[in-house]
Structures are given as C-alpha cells and as structure tokens.
Design goal:
This protein is α+β, with helices and mostly antiparallel strands. Helix content is 21%, strand content 41%. Helix 5 packs antiparallel against helix 6.
Length: 272
C-alpha cells in the first residue's frame, strides 16, 4: 500500500510540475534562470506566485513583500530564431586579425559563407522575432501557522510582440539592392498584446498524510484574473519593391491590420 501511495504521489507531482511550467506568466528569479528556468520546482516565496502556488509557503519570515520600490522587478526576453549567436558573430562580427593601425579587420564572406547564410534564413519558420516584457508591480506573501496556511497576492503586466521578418528582407542584408530584382515582403507578420494579471494563491502543508521518503508535502491553489489592455495583428502586408537600372524604386503595397485598445488608453472608437 505504501508503494502504491508513493507511485501515485510521484505521478501527481510530475503532472502538476508540467502543468505549472506551461503558459505561466510571472517573474523569474536569478537562481531559476541560471538553472535553465525550472520554475515549477525551483522557485520559492514571491517568485512562486503564478508559477507553483504550492511553493509560496517555502520561505523565511512571516511576510514577504516585493514592490516597485526600491527597484522595479521586471523581466525582458528577446529571441531571433534565424541563427545562433555564434553564427551571428561569424557573419556580422570581425576577424581575429588586426591591421597596422591596431584596428579589427572586417570579415569578407566567401561564396560558401553566403550560401550557408542563405540556407539559414530560408529555412522553415526562420525569421521569427519574439520580445516579451513582464513587470511585477506588487507581490505579497503572508504565512500563518500550519493549520491556516499561506496566502499570496501579485499584480503583473505582460507585453509580448511577435514578428516574422520576410526572407527577402534578410537577403537584402546579404545581396543589397539588386537592380531589377523584385523584393516581396508579403511574409511579414506582426502580433502584439498587453495583459494584466491579478493572482491570488493559497498553500498549505499536507501533514495529515505520511508518505515514505517524503519529508514535506504541500499543496497550493491559484486564482487568476486576466485583463486585456491591447491587441494588434497584421492581417496582410503585400509589399513589393523593385529598383530599375537607373536606381529608381517603384512598388505596390496592400496592408491590412487590426488594433484594439482599452478605453484606459484614452482611445475613442467611432464605428458608425
């Protein structure tokens, strides 16, 4: 029976850890980030609010408080899946050589280098740029005795921008403005959103269940209220440009986008 209890607990803990680590929006601590961001199991205290409520009770002191003072807690994440950092430094960096003046020598790309660059940027789903900003305005944890449990409250803002850079735009960086070549930017995509999340969490020690090899067992629950303050979407961006032999640029464009903003921004819509 004890073996069955242990297996059930292991399954439950694994399921909860995976559920909490997917789609959560909350601030990250330095330890969790340095460990590869295993937020569901590594966070403690105020950083557990919104990620794993069962761990808000794992901390020191009866009260933990994080506000905009003295320093604002925010996270910034950006990514570009076109190439690795090593590839970027190779194509856009410098040689390990210096000229007579002691200045770095620029790298001259060979035909093989240019071919590899084209392969990188023309691969499927390449060119996607993501930018995320999370701002935590307030985070409070109050720990009572074991019979009552621990309560947490957090207020965070989340802004996310996703862009898909057209392949032709990336090739422009390599080939330049080639005469009589049509640059098609219809692959361009853009999405942005602004959310605000209010979180209330509760955690309690499960001391009435004794499981072998388990020193401490806690359970937690979070309730989230999410407000949307803005959303933008680029439906289509049919832009084509061409440069003739005389250097004259001509083109056509057909752009359609949608923007929805909260009245809190002072935007007034007229749909009539």
């Amino acid at each position: 029976m004890k073996y069955i209890q242990f297996v059930l607990f292991l399954f439950f803990a694994t399921y909860v850890a995976n559920a909490q680590s997917a789609g959560s929006v909350s601030a990250s601590d330095a330890i969790s980030t340095g460990m590869g961001k295993p937020g569901a199991i590594a966070v403690r205290g105020t950083y557990a609010v919104g990620k794993n409520p069962a761990l808000i009770g794992w901390g020191r002191g009866d009260i933990e408080l994080a506000t905009v003072l003295p320093l604002l807690n925010f996270n910034v994440r950006t990514g570009l899946n076109v190439m690795t950092l090593e590839d970027y430094n190779y194509f856009f960096g410098w040689n390990d050589q210096y000229d007579a003046k002691g200045e770095k020598v620029k790298r001259d790309l060979t035909e093989a280098d240019k071919s590899r660059f084209r392969d990188l940027i023309t691969a499927e789903d390449n060119g996607i740029v993501t930018n995320d900003l999370l701002i935590e305005y307030f985070n409070l944890i109050v720990r009572s005795d074991k019979k009552i449990g621990t309560f947490g409250f957090a207020l965070t803002d989340f802004v996310s921008v996703r862009l898909n850079l057209p392949t032709q735009l990336l090739l422009f960086a390599l080939d330049g403005n080639t005469p009589n070549k049509v640059f098609d930017f219809s692959e361009n995509e853009a999405d942005a959103l602004h959310l605000r999340k209010w979180t209330i969490s509760y955690a309690r020690d499960i001391d009435f269940v004794q499981i072998p090899y388990i020193k401490k067992l806690t359970a937690g629950l979070s309730l989230n209220y999410v407000q949307s303050f803005g959303y933008a979407h680029l439906e289509r961006s049919n832009i084509k440009l061409v440069t003739d032999n005389k250097g004259v640029i001509t083109g056509t464009s057909d752009i359609l986008g949608y923007v929805a903003l909260s009245p809190d921004f002072g935007v007034k819509y007229d749909f009539e």
